[in-house]
Amino acid sequence: MNTVEAAEYLGRTPRTLAQWRHYREGPTYLKGANGRVTYRQDDLDEWKRHTAPAEALVHLSEADRLVIDALG
Q1: How many Cα atoms are found within 13 Å in the side-chain-facing hemisphere of 4?
Q2: How far is the C-alpha of 20 from the C-alpha of 55, rounded, in Å?
Q3: Strand, coil or helix: what is 25?
Q4: pTM, whole model, 2 decimals?
Q5: Tens digit of pLDDT at every position of the chain (72 positions)
Q6: What are the residue ranges spanned by the domains of the chain?
Q7: Residue 22 to residue 13: CA distance in whole angstroms
């Protein structure tokens, strides 16, 4: 899928995906000889699986984070 489709699939903006590519972050992508960027759904799904737990922590209160840290 192209950048617009991948961004929609991930709930992000195309600009975010472009920034991730620039900083070598985000999901794996392919860049063709013509410069066109594409993403495989398997790579997007894998990226979502690995980032979902970390993103969930953003919505926790400080007290919740302390409990999670204490539990290790």
Answers
A1: 0
A2: 16
A3: coil
A4: 0.70
A5: 999 999 999 999 999 999 999 999 999 999 999 999 999 999 999 999 888 665 655 555 666 656 667 776
A6: 3-71
A7: 14
